Amino acid sequence: MSVSIFALIVVLGVLIFFHELGHFLVARMFGVGVERFSLGFGPKLVGRTIGITDYRISAIPLGGYVKMVGEEPDAEVDPADIPISFTHKHVFKRILIVAAGPMFNLLLAVIIFFVIFQISGLLILKPVIGEVKKETPAHRGGFEKNDRILAIDSLAVESWADMARIITSSRGKTLAISLLRGESEIAVNITPELKTFKNIFNEDIERYVIGVTASGEVFSKDLTMLQAFAEGVIQTYNIAALTIKSVVKLIQGTLSPKTLGGPIMIAQMAGQQARQGVTSLAFFIALISINLAILNFLPIPVLDGGHLLFFFIEALSGRPVSIRVREVAQQAGIFVLILLMIYVFYNDITRVFFS
Question: Which are the contacts of 318, defined by CB distance < 8 A and separation ≥ 6?
Fold first, then answer.
């Protein structure tokens, strides 16, 4: 339990710091004064004031905030502070300041993946057969356990992903496969067949297959710094795309809302990853950081996405959204977030009791 709590504090601390750092740095870059940089909410635990900024760690570690000069549109701003007022900056500068928070969460994920790939290399699943299913093209073609795929239609196969991609895109065309069995190289012709499977969203999808599973053998491929950075960007993009698709499926009702989790689930998962080692915990932080970025981009008032929506409307219309509309929208946004928090806590507690 203590490991989970400590891991939760580490995960939330890193995520909140990077998110608020994004807002802070871009605000300062555009000359906006920052009155407070807080990790956590509520009463101040420790802190220090440098210039006009009060840097602090607060008692409730479930978030953080950057309070800027003139942040509220209806706030009275001292004429001397107008040059450093957030509200008095051009709307596109305000958009960049607000967007910087979730963008820094995505940047954090890229950095973490980059470091992991630089230290551990890229783990690649070998194209080695683990099981040959009966009454399938592979079984009829004479495939055996531990056969290694060397090439398909003269295209070199270095990984299981290479093999799967070629077979899936074959459209049922007969493939000339070269495989290694022991010390002997064997050539066989295989015609993939179209099968229906369930994807991670429990939807039916059709895919061409030959009826084999992987052995699970992996190898580590060393990467240059540029390659590691590129893989970090690719990994972040893929997870972000999957997260966005999951949100869409939740809204459509295809994905069960029971899959949602809150602080308790994050603490449990963080504890599990921490016990597996620093690399696993770092990967988990990157995963949650991407999810946090996508969540914050949702056009819900109170979240960064809600503020961005107002600013984009202002940019298109040429005038700010009225204070009254903002107030009503923020009240609705707070209501939605409270309902969501209650629901995810319910899910967390249900998981704890029924597990």
Answer: none
* Predicted TM-score of the model (pTM): 0.85
Other beta carbons less than 10 A from residue 25's beta carbon: 15
The Cβ of residue 270 has, within 10 Å, a number of other Cβ atoms equal to 26
Of the residues 20, 183, 193, 203, only one is catalytic, namely 20
Would you state the structure tokens that stand for residue 104, as one six-digit string?
């820094």
Q: Comparing C-alpha atoms, which of 165, 163, 287, 278 is closest to residue 235? A: 287
- C-beta of residue 270 within 8 angstroms of C-beta of residue 4: yes
Q: Which amino acid belongs to residue 53?
A: T
CA distance 95 to 337: 22
300-328 confidence digits (pLDDT tens): 888 899 999 999 999 999 888 888 888 88
Instruction: Give the three-state DSSP class for 130.
Output: strand
CA distance 261 to 17: 22
What separation in angstroms does the CA of 199 have from each of 52, 203, 238, 293?
A: 53, 5, 16, 25
Query: φ and ψ at 162, to 5 degrees?
Result: -60, -50
Active site residue 20: yes
**CA–CA separation, 238 vs 224, rounded Å?**
21
Dist. CA 250–CA 260, nearest whole Å: 9
- Could you tell me where the DSSP H helices lie in the chain? 2-29, 91-120, 137-140, 160-168, 225-252, 263-276, 278-297, 304-317, 323-354
Residue in 94, 93, 62, 68 with CA at minimum distance from that of residue 81: 68
CB 298 within 8 A of CB 305: yes
Single-letter amino acid, residue 80: A
Report the alpha-carbon distance of residue 286 to residue 132 in Å, rounded: 36
